[in-house]
Amino acid sequence: NAGVTQTPKFQVLKTGQSMTLQCAQDMNHNSMYWYRQDPGMGLRLIYYSASEGTTDKGEVPNGYNVSRLNKREFSLRLESAAPSQTSVYFCASTLELGGETQYFGPGTRLLVL
Amino acid sequence: QQQVKQSPQSLIVQKGGISIINCAYENTAFDYFPWYQQFPGKGPALLIAIRPDVSEKKEGRFTISFNKSAKQFSLHIMDSQPGDSATYFCAASILGSARQLTFGSGTQLTVLP
Which of A29, A83, A99, B7 is the most exposed place for a label (fewest CB within 10 A)? Predict the structure, then answer.
C-alpha cells in the first residue's frame, strides 16, 4: 500500500498561471482533505470531501477549486496563481468523515513567482 | 483567529531529557486533541491523541496531559532521542464537524546526541 500519494513534489509557477495538484489514496477511504502549511501557521484546511461526489470549503478556500474525481482521487486547482499561494500543500484522507486519524501525503511544495 | 496556540516555537533538548510542548485552546466544544509528528520532507503522522474525559494518556515514551479547566494540553516526551527530532503539531477538533482539525503553529524539536 502506498497510502496517500501526491504529484508533483515540487512546482514553480509564475503569477497568473494555473495548475492542478493531484492526490490519490489506496486505503479505500471515503473522506479526503487538502491543507496548506505555512511557516508559523500550522496546517490550514482548504477544502474537504466527505465522500465521492461531495466537496466543502474549509478555512482558506479562496483562490482554489477542488474535484473529487472518484473515491481514490481528490485534486486541487489553482486557476490563477498568486505569490500568496506559495506554500506546501498536503492531502489527507480518513476512513469516514469524522474519522479520528487523518493520513497525510508527502506534500507538494509550490513556489509562485 | 488562531484557536489553538502552541509553544514553544522551537525546543532543544539533550538526549535522555524530557521534551515538553504546550498547547492552549479557546473553543470549549473541542473534544478530540491529537498530536502529529512531522519529519522533514514528509507529511504529518498521528502520534498520540486524547479525549477530554481523561487527564492523561501514555503511549511508550509519549504522554499527553490534559487540563480541561485550564483549556490546556501538553505533550511530554520522556528519554528524548535524536530520532525524535521533528516538528510537532497539536490539533483539536469537534465531533460531528467533519473532524476539521485546527492545528497549532508547530514546535521544531531538536534532540542533541
Answer: A83
